[in-house]
C-alpha cells in the first residue's frame, strides 16, 4: 500500500466543507487503487489570521515544503480588506514554492450545461497553462506626488512627463503605477511545459499576448514562445491578442488545444474558461512546480454567505483532488475520479442547487465516492 | 442647413469600403435632418506609410485638431510588424487628442443572434466606458541584462531581486518589464463622465479592477471611483474584479448598466462585449474628448483578406457614424440610424455573409440609407 502525506488548508467560507468532500473521494480512490493518504490539517485563513496574526509564517512554509502536493479549499473573508488573504496566503504560497505553472483544464463534461449556444462536450476541451510567478503579479508598484522622495518614481515620472509632454510636477497631481516583469528563464520554463503538454495532446499550442501595445513585456514573451518552439517542430502554433482570445473562447472554443498565457491575462481568460465549461462550480486549478511542492484548488472563491450550510458544490474541489492525485503518480485514480464526477452529473440524482438539484454538498461527495468505488 | 466638416481616414484593408457606406448613410441622414457634411479624406494607413514614411505627422495632427470628430475605418496590414500602425496611428491619435473616453455600447439589437443561450435584446444593453489615455497603454517598458546601463532598470532590478530573493545578475538572465500609470486627474475625469452617463441611464455604475493583486495602480483607481461617487448619491455602485467581469458578461449581462474600466482591461472586456452583442461586425466605438477632437471607428480590424471584395459588414462602421453625428449634436439623426440598422437586420433581406445573407457591403449601406430616409 503506497502511503502519501498531503497537507490540507481548508481556508475560509465554504473552503473546509468542500475540501472535506474532496478528501472523502480521494480516500475512496485510495481503497480501490491501493494507496492511503495521511491528511495533515493546516488552520490558515481568516480566522487563524485574526486570532494569531499569522498569514503564513516562514516556519509553515518550511514545513509545507516537505510535501509534493497541498490541497487547498478557498480563501477570502469579508472582514478583511481585498488582497490581504490573497496576497498573504495564496500568492505567497504560489511564489514561495515557485509554482510556475497554473494548470486549468477547460473541459465541458458530458451532461453539463454551457451558456454557449450550439456547443457540446466535444467542442470545449482544452487546457490553459498560465504562468504563475511573474508578470504583473510580482507586486511592485506605488504612488508618486510632488515632493516625495523615491528614486524609482523620479525616473519614471521623468519618463512619463517627457513622453507625453505632461507636467505632473504640480501639487494636486498624484499618480499610481504598477510594474510587470518577466524573465527569460521564467518564460522559457512555462513554454517548455506547454509545448510538452501540446505534444502529448493534439499538437496545437496557442500563445496569448498583447504584443501590439504592451510591446516590451509581451514582445519578449512572443520571442521566447518562438525560440522554444524551434525544439518542437511538430507542434502547430499561433499568437493571439488577449482581447481576441476572449472572443474565440465564446465563438470557437473548439479551436483550442493548449493555451499558454502570461499570469494576468491567464487570470482573466481562465475565469471566462470556467464559465464556458459550466461555471465556477466545476473548474479546478493546479499550481504546479514539477520538481517541488504543488497546490491544488477549485478556482472559485470562499462564498462566505454559504459557509457551514452544506450546500456548496464540491465538484470543482473534487476535480482539483483528481489533479492532485495524478501529480502524486496515480493517473488511473485521477481518471476514475473525473469519470465519477461526470457520471454523478449525468445521473442527475445527487446534485447541488447550482446544478439544478437539491442535494447537500456532503451528499454529492458521498455519491462521487460511491461512483469511484463502482467504476474503479 | 447646418454644415459640418468631418475628416475621414479610411485606413487599411476593408477600412475604405466600410467607411464609404458609413458616409452614404450619414449623407442620407443629413438630407432628412437638415445638415450637410463636407468629407475631408486623409490617406493615412499602411500604403501611405510605405510610400511616404509618414505614420501621422505633427502637421496632420495639427490639421485634424481643428475638427470635432474624425471618422476612421480600420488600420492593420500584414506587411508591417504588429504595433507599427496601431501605435503609430491609432494610439497616437487617441493620445494626441487626449481622447480619454473610449465609449463602447454593448447592445444586442433586435434580430441579431447572440452566442449566449437564453439571452435576448432586453438582457444585453449596457455601455462600457474605457479609460483611453493611461494605464498600461502609455508605452513605457524595456529590457534589462547584466552590464546594461539604465537607471530605471537598475532600480527595478534591485527591487525585483530583493523582493523574490532572486539573483538576476547573471549573464544568461534577461528580463523585460512594462509600466502602467494612472493619474488622479486622468482617473477622475473618466469617473465623472461615467457617473454622469449612469445618472442619465439607469443609475447603476460598475467599476472594473484587480485591486486584490495589482493593488498599487487599481487600489488608486478604486479609491478615486469612491471619491467621485460621493457627488452622485443616487447612482448605485459596485466593484468587480476583471476576471469575474468576464464571467458575468456571459452569465448575467442584464446586471450591467454602465461599466467603467481601466484601459487594458477595457480592451479585453469590450471585445468580449462585442461577441455577446452578436460579433465584431456589429460593435462600434467612440474615442471621445468632450472638449476637443473625437474619433469614431468600428472596433473590428482591417480584415486584409477581404480588401476590395465589397463583402465586409459595414454595420459597425455605420453605427460608429451614428455615435459621431450624435457628438456633433444630431441626436435624432443618430437614433434614426440605429433604428435603420435594426430594421435592416430584422428585414433579413439585405445582409452580408457573416449575418447569414448574401448582399454586398455597398448594398447594405444603400439599404440602411434608404431606411434612414423612410424612418426619418
Ligand atoms: C484570488 C486571486 C489572487 C487569484 C488570482 O488572481 O490569481 C484568483 O483570481 C485565481 O485566479 O486564482
Ligand atoms: C488595435 C489595438 C491597438 C486596439 C487597442 O488595444 O486599444 C484595439 O484592440 C481596440 O480595442 O481598439
From TrEMBL, chains A, B:
Its cofactor is Mg(2+); Mn(2+). It comes from the Archaea. Residues 5-368 form the Isopropylmalate dehydrogenase-like domain. It is an enzyme of class 1 (oxidoreductase). Keywords: Manganese, Metal-binding, NAD, Oxidoreductase. Coiled coil: none annotated. Its EC number is 1.1.1.83. Pfam families: Iso_dh. InterPro entries: ICDH/IPMDH (IPR050501), IsoCit/isopropylmalate_DH_CS (IPR019818), IsoPropMal-DH-like_dom (IPR024084). GO terms for molecular function: D-malate dehydrogenase (decarboxylating) (NAD+) activity. This is D-malate dehydrogenase [decarboxylating].
Amino acid at each position: 500500500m503506497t502511503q502519501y502525506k498531503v497537507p490540507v488548508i481548508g481556508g475560509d467560507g465554504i473552503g473546509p466543507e468542500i475540501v472535506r468532500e474532496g478528501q472523502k473521494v480521494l480516500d475512496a480512490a485510495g481503497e480501490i487503487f491501493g494507496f492511503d493518504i495521511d491528511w495533515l490539517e493546516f488552520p490558515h485563513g481568516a480566522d487563524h489570521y485574526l486570532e494569531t496574526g499569522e498569514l503564513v509564517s516562514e516556519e509553515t512554509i518550511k514545513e509545507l515544503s516537505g510535501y509534493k502536493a497541498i490541497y487547498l479549499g478557498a480563501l477570502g473573508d469579508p472582514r478583511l480588506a481585498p488582497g490581504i488573504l490573497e496576497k498573504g496566503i495564496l500568492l505567497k504560497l504560489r511564489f514561495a514554492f515557485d509554482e510556475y505553472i497554473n494548470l486549468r483544464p477547460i473541459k465541458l463534461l458530458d451532461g453539463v450545461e454551457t451558456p454557449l449556444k450550439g456547443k457540446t462536450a466535444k467542442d470545449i476541451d482544452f487546457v490553459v497553462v498560465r504562468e504563475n510567478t511573474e508578470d504583473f503579479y510580482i507586486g511592485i508598484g506605488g504612488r508618486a506626488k510632488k515632493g516625495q522622495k523615491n528614486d524609482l518614481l523620479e525616473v519614471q515620472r521623468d519618463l512619463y512627463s517627457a513622453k507625453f509632454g505632461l507636467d505632473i510636477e504640480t501639487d494636486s497631481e498624484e499618480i499610481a503605477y504598477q510594474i510587470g516583469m518577466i524573465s527569460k528563464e521564467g518564460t522559457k520554463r512555462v513554454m517548455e511545459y506547454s509545448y510538452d503538454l501540446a505534444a502529448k495532446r493534439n499538437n496545437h499550442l496557442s500563445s496569448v499576448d498583447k504584443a501590439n501595445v504592451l510591446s516590451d513585456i509581451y514582445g519578449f514573451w512572443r520571442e521566447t514562445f518562438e525560440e522554444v518552439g524551434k525544439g518542437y517542430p511538430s507542434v502547430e502554433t499561433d499568437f493571439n491578442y488577449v482581447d481576441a482570445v476572449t472572443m474565440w473562447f465564446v465563438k470557437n472554443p473548439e479551436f483550442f488545444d493548449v493555451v499558454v498565457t502570461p499570469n494576468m491575462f491567464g487570470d482573466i481568460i481562465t475565469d471566462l474558461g470556467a464559465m464556458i465549461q459550466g461555471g465556477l462550480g466545476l473548474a479546478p486549478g493546479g499550481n504546479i512546480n514539477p520538481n517541488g511542492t504543488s497546490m491544488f484548488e477549485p478556482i472559485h472563491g470562499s462564498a462566505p454567505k454559504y459557509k457551514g450550510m452544506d450546500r456548496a458544490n464540491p465538484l470543482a474541489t473534487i476535480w482539483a483532488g483528481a489533479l492532485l492525485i495524478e501529480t502524486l503518480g496515480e493517473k488511473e485514480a485521477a481518471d476514475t475520479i473525473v469519470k465519477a464526477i461526470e457520471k454523478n452529473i449525468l445521473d442527475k440524482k445527487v446534485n447541488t442547487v447550482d446544478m439544478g438539484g437539491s442535494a447537500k454538498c456532503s451528499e454529492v461527495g458521498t455519491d462521487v465516492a460511491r461512483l469511484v468505488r463502482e467504476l474503479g
